[in-house]
Amino acid sequence: MSFVDQFNKLNWDDISMSIYSKTASDVERALNKPKRDLEDFKALISPAAEPYLEQMAQLSYSLTRKRFGNTMSLYIPLYLSNLCANACTYCGFSMENRIKRKTLDRDEVSAEIDAIKAMKFDSVLLVTGEHETKVGMKYFRAMVPMIKEQFNYLAMEVQPLDQEQYAELKTLGLDAVMVYQETYHPSTYGEHHLRGNKTDFEYRLDTPDRLAKAGIDKIGIGALIGLEEWRTDCFYVAAHLDYLERTYWQTRYSISFPRLRPCEGALQPKSVMTDKQLVQLICAYRLLNPEVELSLSTRESPSFRDNVLPLGITSMSAASKTQPGGYAMDDVELEQFEISDERSAASVEDMIRAKGFDPVWRDWHSAYSG
Fold this sequence. Notes:
Layout: H1 3-7, H2 12-20, H3 24-32, H4 38-45, H5 53-68, E1 71-81, E2 87-88, H6 106-117, E3 123-128, H7 137-148, E4 153-157, H8 163-171, E5 176-178, H9 186-192, E6 193-195, H10 201-205, H11 207-213, E7 218-222, H12 230-247, E8 252-256, H13 275-288, E9 293-296, H14 302-308, E10 315-317, H15 345-354, E11 358-360, H16 364-368
Parallel strand pairs: 1-3, 1-10, 1-11, 3-4, 4-5, 5-7, 7-8, 8-9, 9-10
Antiparallel strand pairs: 2-6
Pfam families: BATS, Radical_SAM
Subunit structure: Forms a heterodimer with ThiG.
Protein name: 2-iminoacetate synthase
């Protein structure tokens, strides 16, 4: 059994219709319950819930403070390579884009590490394009131990791997893996993933199961908001989380909600989510699950990140560069996507403190459990 089995029992159109048929009374019922289920989540992300946003925000704030206190975990992405063997319509690293390709060697990685550590980060997310031959396990075996020596917490966002490969990477220091389905609508997924291993919808969908079986400490999931109708896609994320927590209860989970950003060969969103709707979604995830970590990246604007920070977010990236060598090299070219919040790590830290929160440069769980 895996989530693929449960996924095949779900019907996109039925779920969408159910979400859009929710009423004010459904929303009020969900808000008044001490513990909410997926049916309540449908109500909370429905158009009927929009007039209740202030109440949702207050509840979300309270639940987050009760579970996470006033801590805000900070992390930074470290892009190791922009080589990619996939053709994806929404990504600047797509193999069909004629751009300069770069994979960092050990000396270049060392320079990036020095630059990142100078900004105080102790939690890093390794990111690559998906190229199994040139940026696969051989490369990871060389780089992961070297990088882990310098950082308390090490996460990866790379191509999906087999269970045995994840288990090996865990022995080398890997703590967490982020793997986003992009969209849970199979035919839409096919429209945007044109060539390469990423065309295998079910193998990607099964990745969190393999990660949990390999004993990875934390798994991050999410949808790329804009590829499909956002409410239905985000319900599938919630259903995926519900399955994972029931099946692999010893693993921690995080959710991200990236909205499409400009990139090389830019794609126009099929479904536009407003800032207000993203706040609604963040609060709905928190009301559904008081334990899950919610992460907000520099894709979003400084003002939005500042305002939404208290409402349910538990971790934020800062000072992000989305190209290999972005922190230490001068001649870098391609970004995977354009960031929106370009503030320095110190500026983001000051903002967090000004709002009465405690910046945590390590992964919050490991920082406060020992």
